[in-house]
Amino acid sequence: xxxxxxIRRVGLLAAVIIIALSPIFCTAQLASGAAPAPDAAPKxxxxxxxxxxxxxxxxxxxxxxxxxxxxxxxGGTITGPKLKGKVLPGGWDWQLQLANGCSxxxxxxxxxxxxxxxxxxxxKGMLCGGGKAFTRPVFEAPKGACEWLTEGxxxxxxxxxxxxxxxxxxxxxxxxx
Length: 177
Known about the structure:
It is a single chain. This protein is α+β, with helices and mostly antiparallel strands. It has two domains: 34 residues; 137 residues, Porin, CATH 2.40.160. Helices cover 20% and strands 47% of the residues. The chain is built from two helices and ten strands, in the order αββββββββαββ. Strands 1, 2, 3, 4, 5, 6, 7, 8, 9 and 10 form a ten-stranded antiparallel β-sheet that branches. The radius of gyration is 24 Å and the shape is globular. The N terminus is likely disordered.
């Protein structure tokens, strides 16, 4: 029993020393300039662009969080260096208009690549004045030619391009490299 308690005491003492010294090691690492080199910062590369056609907004009403509405997605086109195809009808952009005048965007829809591959999109962002917003898209594609979408990290730039009779948005997707 003495060995077991001796080992336990040594193990506990080692853990206390490691915990006590970890801020010193972290501070020393930061002070040594261990930050990534500027050329290691991610670059954005154009992946593709969607023009998404929309139906008129459907008002849900005022909620405890703000004014809720959704906008049905009716279709669209995809062009670009890394993906071509179409936006499938049937998705939506679930929006929450906040008291500060901004709108929280949360779109879910599907794409169909030229080769027939179906890709799920969840795209979230915040629109504050003007007609443009940055979004955080996440793609889910089956294994194969479009798998790079699932594995990549993207930023979207959304701009309004339609009018009251034909609402639409352009979303340009950039992949972080």
